[in-house]
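Hi R.,

Here's the chain you asked about this morning:
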Amino acid sequence: MLSHTDLLVQREHYKDLLQEAEYERLIRAAGLRQSGHRRLHRKFAGWIGIQLVRWGRKLQSYGTRPPPSCLQVAGEH
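And the predicted structure, written out as tokens:
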């Protein structure tokens, strides 16, 4: 038979297990929210990357082609 002290120790252990389980649940819930933010940040970073590549291409091609007005003048001669 269990003594009164043994019962108190079991109760405290059970309370500790419940607290640990709650803590783990909160950690998992926070992790899910963080991964949602990470997805949003990745999408935004991808969009920014695409814009930077587009702008870079425009800057690289700037000055390599004659402006449209020069083509019209050259075609008239």
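The first helix runs from residue 4 to 61.

Let me know if you need anything else.
M.
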